């Protein structure tokens, strides 16, 4: 299964007491708890900071192009038990330093675009920004996972200006199309439906659906190219520099008349 648990999408962080309780239940001692107090707040602030940056990009695109290729944005904070399990699975002791260094997806953002080209356009823009550090890119669009999963995963760092100074907080961004997002959501539901023990024929069906998703994205991208091309031709035809056939005929007649009237009179 590739889809993280996004059931708390756009939710506020867990209340501090509940967060600490979950940590205690997962073996985090009292001394370490004090270090953890800032964790949910810092990552939520980092998500808000990054979300504002993406929304600014949306606004700029609307001003430049008349529309934004970004369909929607979702965010989530990883549950404490998932954080602890992942640290242990990696073979590390559950400490704040290990978590901050080794776990890159405590804060997660999903950006859904209409077309594949828009994903790479957004990625290219993020590369140019000085207020975002790109640490790692995994392109599961160019190289899908064996089960067909497609998405562009990017680990970034976002600066938070605090009283103690600037801290760079890691956030995982998943960039995908509407079709990819639909497939991933259905795959997630099916895996939980079968308690992660999915029958082989269902796995094969998901792989076929993933191929269909890819073909759909490519077809829609081709159609968009054709529409944009037709739109450009129409704009050129409607522009003053490209008069209509009737206007051209009228202008030719007018020039001919002017030319006739300007001829010298002969006896």
Provide a descriptive summary of the structure in words.
By secondary structure, the chain is an alpha+beta fold. It has a domain of 163 residues: Beta Polymerase, domain 2. It contains nine helices and five strands. Strands 1-2-5-4-3 form a five-stranded mixed beta sheet. α7 runs antiparallel to α8. The longest helix has 39 residues. The protein is flat. It starts with 15 loop residues before the first helix and ends in a 6-residue tail after the last helix.
In short:
InterPro entries: GTP_Pyrophosphokinase (IPR052366), NT_sf (IPR043519), RelA_SpoT (IPR007685). With about 270 residues, the chain is of the alpha+beta class. The chain is about 55% helix and about 15% strand.
* Main pleated-sheet profile: 5 strands, mixed
Fold-level CATH name of the domain at 16-178: Beta Polymerase, domain 2
Instruction: Supply the helix-strand structural class.
Output: alpha+beta
What integer is the average pLDDT? 78
Strand order of the largest sheet: 1-2-5-4-3
Q: What is the alpha-carbon Rg in Å?
A: 28 Å
User: What is the helix tally?
Assistant: 9
Strand content: 15-25%
Helix content: 40-55%
Please state the second-level CATH architecture of the domain at 16-178: 2-Layer Sandwich
Count the beta strands. 5
* CATH class identity of the domain at 16-178: Alpha Beta
The CATH H-level homologous superfamily of the domain at 16-178? Beta Polymerase, domain 2
- Along the chain, the helix and strand elements come as HHHEHHEHEEEHHH
Distance between the termini: 98 Å
Dominant shape: flat
Low-confidence stretches: 1-13, 251-267
Oligomer classification: single chain
Biased composition (Polar residues): 246-257
GO molecular function: kinase activity
Domain RelA/SpoT: 75-198
GO biological process, one term: guanosine tetraphosphate biosynthetic process
């Amino acid at each position: 299964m590739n889809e993280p648990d996004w059931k708390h999408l756009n939710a506020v962080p867990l209340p501090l007491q509940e967060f600490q309780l979950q940590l205690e239940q997962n073996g985090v001692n009292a001394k370490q708890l004090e270090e953890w107090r800032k964790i949910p707040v810092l990552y939520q602030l980092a998500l808000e900071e990054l979300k504002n940056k993406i929304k600014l990009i949306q606004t700029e695109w609307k001003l430049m192009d008349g529309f934004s290729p970004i369909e929607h944005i979702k965010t989530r904070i990883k549950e404490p038990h998932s954080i602890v399990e992942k640290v242990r699975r990696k073979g590390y002791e559950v400490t704040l330093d290990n978590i901050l260094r080794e776990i890159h997806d405590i804060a997660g953002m999903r950006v859904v675009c209409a077309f594949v080209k828009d994903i790479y356009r957004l990625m290219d823009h993020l590369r140019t920004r000085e207020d975002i550090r790109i640490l790692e890119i995994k392109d599961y669009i160019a190289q899908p996972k064996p089960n067909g999963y497609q998405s562009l995963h990017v680990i970034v760092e976002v600066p938070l200006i605090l009283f103690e100074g600037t801290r760079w907080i890691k956030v995982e961004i998943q960039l995908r199309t509407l079709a990819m997002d639909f497939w991933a959501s259905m795959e997630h539901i099916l895996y939980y439906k079968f308690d992660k023990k999915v029958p082989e024929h269902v796995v094969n069906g998901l792989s076929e659906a993933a191929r269909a998703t890819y073909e759909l994205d490519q077809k829609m991208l081709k159609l968009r190219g054709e529409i944009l091309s037709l739109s450009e031709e129409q704009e050129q035809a409607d522009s003053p520099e490209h008069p209509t056939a009737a206007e051209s005929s009228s202008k030719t007649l007018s020039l001919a008349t002017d030319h006739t009237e300007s001829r010298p009179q002969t006896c």
